[in-house]
Fold each of these.
Amino acid sequence: GAVVSQHPSRVICKSGTSVKIECRSLDFQATTMFWYRQFPKQSLMLMATSNEGSKATYEQGVEKDKFLINHASLTLSTLTVTSAHPEDSSFYICSAQETSGGADIQYFGAGTRLSVL
Amino acid sequence: GQNIDQPTEMTATEGAIVQINCTYQTSGFNGLFWYQQHAGEAPTFLSYNVLDGLEEKGRFSSFLSRSKGYSYLLLKELQMKDSASYLCAAMDSNYQLIWGAGTKLIIKP
């Protein structure tokens, strides 16, 4: 099956530092990847859609200068949280879209739990 | 607006059957997805329906009625490991997923 790897699984950092999260599709090519944020006991909140070779599409209210997305290859997208602050602490999850049998299915990475001190 | 409704929480007994309902309202429709999410983990894909009817996959089945904007996930022979949140998501005309808030399923022995 489709496997998506997300790294790191957990990050603890000081306020003001930048954190980079990688999302890789291991056994398929993903033109489109997605970045989500999830607060405890809440549903997924889409932050941005990452398209290979072009700029990411950000959802309303998401600061593109704070959450930098790069999708330089068909198997890798990165999210960089710049100048992280405690309010950025959250569970960040990526997904990669695979087209199979005419359906576009998102497969998720394991998520990254970010704690900003 | 676009909206997904599913129950917040359900409780069922080990070995029993449970049905988790989902209704959706989207601008256009390109399919209905169910994902399972264990606490502290990322979602895992369970099923995809785009045509009316029942899709069976082992102990899990998913049903879709496009005319009613309705889907359900049926879990049979419940096991303790099935305790998780189940997320319903509908794909709109822009091929974007609209997510429900999830149904927390609690399995009791």
Amino acid sequence: QVQLVQSGSELVKPGASVRVSCKASGYTFTSHTMSWVRQAPGQGLEWMGWINTDTGKPTHAQGFTGRFVFSLDTSVSTTYLQINNLKAEDTAVYYCARSALGTNFADWWGQGSLVTVSS
Amino acid sequence: DIVLTQSPDSLAVSLGERATINCKSSQSVLYNSSSQNYLTWFQQKPGQPPKLLLYWASTRQSGVPDRFSGSGSGTHFTLTISSLQAEDVAVYYCQQYYYIPLTFGGGTKVEIK
């Protein structure tokens, strides 16, 4: 059974960094691209980009370059989202989402990780 | 970037009645070689992650009830819930996966009248 289990909520100060993890199980990790999606409080969904879990190559949407880093550790079937120099407007739920095999649409989602940026 | 415009923003439907949500794309998401529309529909309930309902605009994901159906092609798409149930209260999003960046519609909130 496919599972994407994300790390827990984080309360962090402006200017700090945070790393969110997404551990996959139940399928061949390197066969499916993993996306990251942001949802600000009360708002819609924004695709941040994805990482090719076979090559490690990241692709970032505009607006999610520079401070946003996608990485992975295939030995533990885990992808990571690191956000540096956090700002108040980064407060959101961050989801990882697996792309269906051979396509770009997401068929499985993690439960989400709430990141709150506040002093 | 491809802009997806959903309408209405919200709708209230009586139990057992039909709910219809529209999604208009700023560019065609039809891939002519395969005749496939690169569009999905997601359902999101409060406090939960989105759930895939339909892909290729009209193919139901495994386990999705057949009261959910999708139609349309090119730039205009529709999600229909044929007989609204209480558990269908949620926000519904369309998403195109033809172009990078992938983009979502703004969402449509469905409530019980």
